[in-house]
Amino acid sequence: MERVGVLVVSYGSREAAIVEALRKSEEYRVDLYIADRQRNPYNLARAKEHIVIPNLDVDRILSFAEKFKGEIDFGIVGPEKPIIEGIRDIIEEKVGIPLICPTKEFAIEGSKVAQRLLFQEAVPEVNPRFRVFAPSDYPSVEEAKRDLVKWLDELDNMVAVKPDAPAAGKGVGVWGDHFTSREQIIEHFTSNYREGAVIVEEKLEGEESSFQALCDGKHLIPLPETRDYKRAFDGDRGPNTGGMGSYKDVGDCLPFMTREDREREEEIVERIFRRLKGRGRNPGLIGMPFYVAFMHTRDGPKILENNSRFGDPEILNIIPILKEDFVEVCYRILEGNLRGVEVDDKATVAIYKVPPSYGGYMEAYPDRVRRDEVGSPINLEGAERLASLYQGRMRIYPASVELRNGGIYALRSRAVCVVGIGETIEEARRISLEGIGAIRGGGLWNRMDIGSREHIDKSIAHLRRLRGFRPVER
Ligand code: AMP
Ligand code: GLY
After folding, report:
1. Which atom in ligand 2 lies closest to the alpha carbon of residue 314?
2. Sorting pLDDT into bands at 50, 70 and 90, what band is 470?
3. Ligand 2: which atom is nearest the Cα of residue 243?
4. Does domain 2-101 have CATH number 3.40.50.20?
5. Among 307, 318, 417, 447, residue to substitute to test ligand 2 (most atoms within 8 Å of Cβ)
6. Which bound ligand lies closest to the C-alpha atom of 227?
């Protein structure tokens, strides 16, 4: 078997799934060089070389890559921070290792303003109405606020307020969710405006989905649609999180979408891709430059935002059911030769178990927190035994946990993801929940309604109502 060395820049479960897919290769013997955010037990057990870089600082990843330069054939980068900071340009230039992720120029996740302006050129009809308030355009914040008030009058306060840079200031705020008065909007706006430009856009009503596509710079290969659960608690209540879980149906569409919705999405993203790509192949656009959050509205899909990387958890609905050798897929991406990828026609449900400090759980449900368990080691053995009985239909992917003194301990972010694979969403969900239930310790908790019939029926009814009671399912 041919040997291949792969650098993986890792954040959590998303990369554990990538590691699993690389190691499953039947064509290549894969040596892994993992730059990790923590001592992830899954990665530690599989890496040839492993380093912990808690903030994923690009210079430190570069030193790690330099040290093993002669042994690494290519790399793959999961999290957004190093991608936005230009890790691809830096590592390719300094050590000549090709990386699977966009270059800094094409990591459009880095600026929400630049994204909106690009969509305005390429696909204006799927942008909500928006305005950019940039400190460089106004002599004082008071003048910006005067314009803001006029804009709020026009949109009747029904807005989303977003800082240009990801996670700057107070982040995204939405009318009805984060504020219910104009004073609160202005307060949110002002705190973000201190950090830089702010977008104030029309609030869209509908159902969200995640569209992901692999790209080799020349071909855009759409992957099946998934639905992410952003809010912390059941019934979509509580604060936004990184994503508490996600589901995928059989086929490439979701139960609340029509085939036409999906085809529209493919066409929209293809148009954005062509616009950015220019003529011929553009190697700046490899990996997953387009992971688009859509809102399915009365008038069809509209764009919420674009990310320049794999979705977490959304890619966990796909990677475990890829029918192809993942190393081969990586080589085809690097060579500009990716004509398609085959995915097993299954439903998948991914559910995260998270620590009590995550998502405001302790404050919202102090009585439910298992205090005696908080900070205790996490036992994955029962879940792993179950997973082996399920012969691949249950996958356990550790994330923000660290191996310490022989035990596994939760850190601050999402701790472990369990993916269930089935013939229906219902079956996949049952398997995922069974695995989740077998993980003990750490006081971990999870949402119970990821992919539930009730939640899906609510999405279908919501869109039906918005679309004047026309059927929305396929
Ligand atoms: P973003 O970081 O832009 O994806 O925003 C985070 C979340 O805020 C999205 O997943 C939506 O739930 C919500 N959101 C963002 N923009 C809008 C909008 N224009 N209308 C309604 N909800 C939005
Ligand atoms: N699931 C949301 C994200 O990956 O940004």
Report:
1. 1
2. confident
3. 1
4. yes
5. 307
6. 2
C-beta 194 within 6 A of ligand 1: no
List the CATH code of the domain at 129-202: 3.30.1490.20
Give the integer Cα–Cα distance in Å for 428 and 52.
33
Place of tokens 């239930």: 437
Decide: 312 in ligand 2 pocket, CB within 6 A.
yes
User: Which residue intervals of the chain bear CATH 3.30.470.20?
Assistant: 205-335
**Helix, strand, coil distribution of the chain in percent, nearest 5:** 35, 25, 35
Instruction: Provide the pLDDT confidence category of residue 203 given band limits of 50, 70 and 90.
Output: very high
pLDDT at 167: 77
Contact 315, 395 (CB under 8 A): no
Sign for the pseudo-dihedral over CA of 370, 376, 379, 383: positive
Rg (CA), the chain: 22
The sheet that has 394-398: what strands, in order across it? 227-228, 245-248, 347-353, 416-422, 394-398
Query: Measured between alpha carbons, how far apart are the two ends of the chain, in Å?
Result: 45
Taking Cα atoms as reference points, which of 465, 122, 467, 468 lies closest to residue 299? Answer: 467
Element holding 183 (H helix, E strand):
helix 182-193
Kindly give the number of the ligand 2 atom that is closest to the alpha carbon of 14: 4
For 178, the token pair is 């984060």
Q: Of ligand 1's atoms, which has the minimum distance to the CA of residue 228?
A: 10
Question: Within a 10 A sphere around the Cβ of 466, how many other Cβ atoms?
Answer: 17
**Mean of all residue pLDDT scores within the chain:** 97
Distance 228 CA to ligand 1 centre (A): 12
pLDDT in tens, 128-174: 999 999 999 999 999 999 999 999 999 999 999 999 998 776 789 99
Burial 147-157 (b: 16+ CB within 10 A, else e): ebeeebeebeb
Is the pLDDT assigned to residue 185 strictly greater than 70? Answer: yes
Residues of the chain within CATH 3.40.50.20 domain(s) are: 2-101
CA–CA gap between residue 275 and residue 66 (Å, rounded): 35
- Is residue 474 very low, low, confident or very high in pLDDT (cuts 50, 70, 90)? low
The answer to whether residues 336 and 218 touch, using CB atoms and an 8 Å cutoff, is yes
- Rounded to an integer, the average pLDDT of 188-193 is 96
Quick check: 188 and 163 in contact, CB under 8 A? no
CATH number of 205-335: 3.30.470.20
Task: Name the CATH architecture for the domain at 347-457.
Answer: Alpha-Beta Complex (3.90)
Place of tokens 């929305």: 472
d(CA 74, CA 22): 12
Distance 172 CA to ligand 1 centre (A): 7
From CA 208, how far away is CA 294, in angstroms rounded?
A: 6
